[in-house]
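User: I'm preparing a small set of examples for a lab meeting where we compare how different chains pack in three dimensions. I only have the primary sequence for this one, and I'd like the structure in C-alpha cell form so I can line it up with the others. Please keep the answer compact; I'll paste it straight into my notes.
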Amino acid sequence: MAILSDWPEQERPRERLYALGAAALSDAELLAIVLRTGVRGKSAVDLSREILKKLGGICGLISANDVEWQNISGLGKVKRAQVLAGIELARRMLRESLHEKNAFTHPSEVADYLRLSLAHFPHETFGALWLDNRHQLILYEEIARGTLNEAAVYPREVIKRALAHNAAAVIFAHNHPSGQAEPSDADLAITRQLVDVLALIDVRILDHFVVTSDKIVSMAAQGVLPKWRE
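Assistant: Understood. Below is the C-alpha cell output for the 230-residue chain.
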C-alpha cells in the first residue's frame, strides 16, 4: 500500500498544509488528508485524484450516490465514511453560521448550504429555510420528497408549517437530480401559487432556488420573484 509517509516531507499534503495553509493545497491533496492512506499501488493523493475525476470534482463528491461510490476501486466503507463525515461537518458548520447572523442579505450566502443539503439526493426534495423578521434562520425543513422528476408540494401544508414556526419570510429550494438547473413550468407555477397563499399570512418568499450538483439557480434573479435588497 502506498502511504504518504514514504514521500519527501516537503511534498506530503499534511506537512504542506502546516507550512503553507489549507488554501494552498489542491482538492486532491485536501481529500488525501481526509483519506489518510491510499490503496495498493496508489498513494492517497493518487486515489483522491481518481475519486475526483470519476465523480466530477468537489460538487460531484458531495452529490455522489451509492452506485457511484461503489464503482471506485479500492474505496472501502471506512474511507467513504471519513469523506461523508467531513461533508456532514461542513453542512453543520454552514447551518450553525446561518443561525448566528443575518445571512440572507444576498442570495449567494445560502448557495453553499443548499447545495450541501439538497444536491446529493437521488430523488427530488423540496425544502424551506424559515426565517424570522430579521431574516435570521429559524430552521431548515424538508417539506416534500418525491421521485426523480417531481415532489408534490401542497400550499395548505406549507401554510401550516409557516404558522407553526412563526416565520416572517422563507427561502424555498428543491433539487433537480436530472442535472437540469432551469426551473420547469411546474416549478414556476407552484412558486407563484405559494407567493399568493403565503401573502395572506404576511410571509414573504425571498427566493426559490433550483439546485443541482454543480449549479444553483435563483428564481428571484430570473425575475420570477422580486430581487433581494442589497
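A couple of notes for your slides: The first helix runs from residue 13 to 20. The chain has a mean pLDDT of 83.

User: Perfect, thanks.
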